[in-house]
What does this fold into?
Amino acid sequence: MKEKIKTLGELKASGYKPRSIKQELRDNLIAALKNGSPLFEEIKGYEETVIPQLQTAILSQHNIILLGLRGQAKTRLSRLMVQLLDEYVPVIEGSELNDDPMQPLSRYGHDRITVLGDETPITWMHRNDRYTEKLATPDVSVADLIGDLDPIKAAALKLSYADERVIHYGLIPRSHRCIFVINELPDLQARIQVSLFNILQEGDIQIRGFKLRLPLDIEFVFTANPEDYTNRGSIVTPLKDRIGSQILTHYPKTIETSAAITAQEAGVAKDQKDFITISPLLSRLIEQIAFEARKSEYIDQKSGVSARLTISAYENLYSVVQRRMLMNKETTGIARISDLYGIIPSITGKVELVYEGELEGISNVAITLIGKAIRTEFLNHFPDPGKSKKNKLKNVYAEIIEWFREGNELDLLAMGTHKDYEQALHKVAGLLDIVRAHSKTKDSKEVTLMMEFVLHGLAEFSQISKKKLEAVVKFSDLVGSIFNMQSGEEEN
It folds into this structure.
């Protein structure tokens, strides 16, 4: 249609009928649901919770607020609503307010139709251009959002300030017939929020005492973090009352969902994907770190732990392996359990600590989270070392523990070659037998990884000692390491 129709007369002849954006979203959603068309496919974990509520809000033709902690896909969800818009809509050519040719809003639109009639030229606006997003910050002004009087325009056109043509419109009027998103709404000053009242309900705007009836057609979507209500600001009650639906978002509820989001969003370079192997075990451990962080007593749970933590960690894990490959001149690489310590920078910048966490130190908190993730995941693959220790006759880890008790130690170098890594692990008596007995994998490289996993697991269950040094992870006898520590303290 858009290729053939160039004027208002041609548009009338085509049978085009204007619709409000809320009606447009509603009609297209109804059609998609009837046809079973996929909606919001990029959003995982919300299929039974957030997305049904969002669809209900659209069917109700509501303005919407998405309320949730950081990293819960609020902005992504807003952007995907564009999929429910018509692919193209007609606009009066040159209109800064996206005037519908059949229902012009601005003075410019009315004047063009008055002068040109059915010969009024029109253009077609793609749905991707019908989305506007503004991050609320304390310095946002009414002029930014609503508009202001333009003295230069008044002088150039020789108009008085009482003429609406002297108004320089802000983002919201320029988003007529669009989806307009304000992120982090509580950060917007209360007086700025008040300026939105009439737009949402009465359909008029006020600029420096100039009152203009302007029934804007906008789908408003707001996002907010519950933490902001007390820490940085609040949503004024009359504005909140004018928002039709409040939808609560959440973090992924399962490791599998979280891993699928991470795999979808992570920006891993092609040369890393092609030559580096990341075991599903390590992917689960990365996700488990985030789950542990979301219940840690060291981390401020009101602030939340973003999904960006696992995405950044996944990217860093690939890079840790690639760096080792380059240094050792290896053509392929395999991620190790000890490589998880290389993702600490991805953790330290993504969490907010409470007082107890500040005392521990951010790096120590990150190491603790890695340890807890290993401990949790270990029980999904191997027997509980605590129970095995109590039952001395059937302690499946006895041979490994005894090997360290005899004074043996194991150093896993962060930058060691894969051959050195394998040889070091195979020195530990009984380690390979445990993996063969309890792991179904037959792949030799995966077996080696599981052997290291056993050592980390035993250390987290206090069966052997583990020390994380700058470039090495050292495993040794638990009792011997305690005595050595006490001896060192006495010497000091």
Summary: The longest strand covers residues 218-224. The chain has two domains: 8-248, 255-491.
